[in-house]
Design goal:
The chain has 221 residues and is of the alpha+beta class. The protein has helices at 20-29, 49-55, 65-72, 94-104, 124-135, 154-164, 195-208; strands at 14-15, 34-39, 42-48, 88-89, 108-112, 118-123, 142-149, 168-175, 183-191, 210-216. Strand 4 (88-89), helix 4 and strand 5 form a beta-alpha-beta unit.
Length: 221
């Protein structure tokens, strides 16, 4: 899951000396949530649609729309942009990008080369697309969630049960968050488990570990 496989490669930028009216028009006419800000061709900041809204007069203003536009025509991008810019390189992974965005409280960031040239932009929407693709949830199927002892062979035991029931594995995801030491959460997304085998498999799963929940998306429950 490399960033270069999921980032948006067509990047719309804005110059630091442009004005807020220029940015407002871009946000209105393009499907974007942020604009990398350039100065002499170099990345120096980032402007989001939230930054533009913050710079706008409040709803309580007595200014009419023409006076507001005149005001925005005098505010440069450089004066309201966010800096320094959090960036990442295209050969890093999507989960790295997600962690950086979460820890920094941002919704996206420019993807740059070693020389600092913008190659793309990765946003939370791109990460959602990646997550949906790799979990297989868009293709429905079945989901099984467990709390399991963190010991060798336990996942193989469960995957053997799935295979013996005629099922196919789409994805396995694990987490050590919010669980006692020595255990981990494991989520299986499967396909092709016949309804006649489903209840029997669930019973076996209950015997093999702590089954948190089951969802058969192929049948709507």
């Amino acid at each position: 899951m490399l960033i270069k496989e999921w980032m948006s490669k067509s990047v719309i930028t804005i110059d630091s000396k442009d004005f807020l009216t220029d940015a407002a028009k871009l946000f209105k006419t393009k499907v974007i949530s942020m604009l990398p800000v350039l100065k002499d061709g170099k990345l120096i900041g980032i402007l989001t649609d939230g930054d533009v809204k913050k710079a706008m007069p409040s709803d309580a203003t007595s200014l009419d729309k023409y006076e507001i536009m005149s005001l925005l025509d005098k505010i440069t991008i450089e004066s309201v942009m966010s800096k320094p810019v959090v960036t990442i390189q295209a050969d890093h992974t999507v989960d790295e990008a997600a962690g950086i965005m979460l820890s920094n409280g941002i919704s996206g960031m420019p993807v740059v080369s070693f020389g600092g040239k913008i190659e793309g932009i990765i946003t939370k929407s791109d990460i959602f697309r990646c997550f949906v693709s790799f979990t297989g949830v868009s293709n429905k199927g079945q989901v099984f969630a467990f709390n399991l002892q963190d010991k060798p062979g336990i996942i193989k035991n469960l995957t053997d049960m799935i295979r013996n029931s005629g099922g196919r594995l789409c994805s396995i995801m694990t987490s050590y968050d919010d669980i006692e030491e020595g255990f981990r959460k494991v989520f299986f997304h499967t396909f092709d488990i016949d309804p006649s085998s489903f209840d029997g498999l669930v019973e076996k799963f209950h015997e093999a570990g702590e089954l948190i929940y089951v969802a058969d998306l192929s049948r709507g429950f």
